[in-house]
Design a protein that fits this description.
By secondary structure, the protein is an alpha+beta fold. It has 2 domains: 1-230, Probable tRNA modification gtpase trme, domain 1 (Gyrase A, domain 2), CATH 3.30.1360; 251-352, Elongation Factor Tu (Ef-tu), domain 3 (Beta Barrel). 20% of the residues lie in helices and 34% in strands. It has 9 helices and 20 strands. It has helices at 13-18, 39-48, 68-72, 122-131, 155-160, 199-210, 220-229, 258-261, 267-276, and strands at residues 8-9, 22-26, 29-34, 50-54, 59-64, 87-94, 100-108, 112-117, 138-141, 145-151, 174-177, 180-183, 192-198, 215-217, 280-287, 298-301, 304-315, 320-328, 337-342, 345-352. The strands form 4 sheets. Strands 11-12-13-10-4-14 form a 6-stranded mixed sheet. Strands 15-18-17-16-19-20 form a 6-stranded antiparallel β-barrel. Strand 17 and strand 18 form a beta hairpin. The longest helix has 12 residues, at 199-210. It is globular and about 60 Å long. The chain starts with 7 loop residues before the first strand and ends in an 11-residue tail after the last strand. The mean pLDDT is 97.
Length: 363
């Protein structure tokens, strides 16, 4: 299988071909959407045991220097300065209007901050972060590193057979050693880890992981259905520069201290939304029957347009179609009846609590 033309390749591209991965374009990269077992099998195996995902297309970087955390807080309402060493946190980068430029993960590694941003936005995020740095603080892009996600209830037990220290790591904890940075986190709603390591070691280590009991390769298709069941946002679908963390139901990502200081980009807008409410909210949506409703499907109530699906598909673990989208605030309560216009035909649905499948993090 040849690489797709004009696309970047991850350090695991040869391994994807060897494993029979079906490659598709994603965020400028040639990425495996599935392997011969298929998306359904990869999804269910990750829920039951462990799936190995290549997420090396994501952007990785370090912030080094005194004042790095305070500088990053100019762009995010997350509490960066209060994060303890060896811990990781989720945050959003905001524009001056309170719109989400990207969502990202940041970890306190003691003498530096370790950042992971979305592949489709790293060309925006990294220059933006650099633009707010004071003298003495440096942003170091880590283009020479790969990123693997080992996800599922059997993931950490399998990994601990070769890295015993990982067994004691708690959710959102970070371990560093042997050239690797490993966080107990992920994008599936399951327990698991994300492993940053030098690009030249990625293929060998991935093969080692695939040789562990219960581990199978999984592609973008299963990653998307897993995160949708878990109610997790995909940048460019569920959140973007036209959505705020309040509208997106990500208020929990705004630090308590930050709500007293209001010294981040878009703070005035966010404060107004928290005080007075917003006109629309991101909600879970459960279509009736078996037919999925995809992104951009119009949402109606009583014959009036009230919103749009942003992510939708079939949830293998819940054995039903699942979706997320934005609806007018007065229609956002759980159980509210909706009608989805799927290919011009009405499909009954209702607002459903998120996540569709329970999170099983190691808290």
């Amino acid at each position: 299988m040849t690489e797709l033309p004009d696309l970047l390749a991850t350090p695991l591209s040869a391994l994807h071909r060897e494993l029979g991965g079906r490659m598709v374009p994603f965020a400028g990269y040639s990425m495996p959407v599935q392997y011969p077992a298929g998306i359904m099998a990869e999804h269910l195996h990750t829920r039951a045991a462990a799936g190995l995902f290549d997420v090396s297309h994501m952007g990785q970087a370090e912030l080094v220097g005194e004042g790095a955390a305070a500088a990053l807080e100019r762009l995010t309402p997350a509490d960066v300065q209060g994060l303890k060493p060896g811990r990781q946190r989720y945050g959003v980068l905001l524009n001056e209007q309170g719109g989400i430029i990207d969502d990202f993960m940041f970890a306190n590694m003691g003498e530096r901050l370790f950042l992971v941003v979305n592949a489709s936005r790293k060309h925006v995020d990294l220059p933006l972060i650099e633009s707010v740095l004071p003298r003495g603080v440096t942003l170091r892009p880590l283009a020479d590193r790969a990123l693997l996600a080992l996800q599922g209830p059997g993931a950490v037990a399998a990994l601990a057979t070769i890295l015993p220290d990982l067994a004691a790591l708690k959710f959102m904890g970070v371990w560093e050693g042997q050239g690797m940075v490993i966080s107990r986190s992920g994008y599936t709603g399951e327990d698991g880890v994300e492993i940053s390591l030098p690009a030249e070691q990625a293929e060998s280590f991935a093969k080692t992981l695939l040789g562990l009991p219960g581990v199978m390769p999984a592609g973008l298709g299963a990653r998307d259905s897993l995160r949708l069941e878990a109610g997790l946002c995909l940048y460019g679908n569920d959140i973007d520069e036209t959505t705020s963390p309040v509208e997106a139901n990500l208020v929990w990502s705004i630090g308590k201290r930050r709500r007293m200081e209001w010294n981040f980009a878009g703070a005035e807008t966010i404060r107004g939304q928290l005080d007075h409410g917003v006109s629309r909210l991101r909600v879970g949506i459960q279509p009736q029957g078996r037919q999925p409703a995809r992104g951009h499907t119009p949402i109606q109530a009583a014959g009036l347009d009230i919103g749009e699906i942003t992510s939708g598909g079939f949830g293998p673990s819940v054995n039903a179609p699942v979706a997320m989208g934005y609806v007018a605030r007065e229609h956002a309560a759980d159980g509210t009846p909706l009608e989805l216009l799927v290919r011009g035909k009405g499909l009954s649905a209702h607002v459903a609590p998120l996540p569709f499948h329970p999170h099983r993090y190691a808290r």
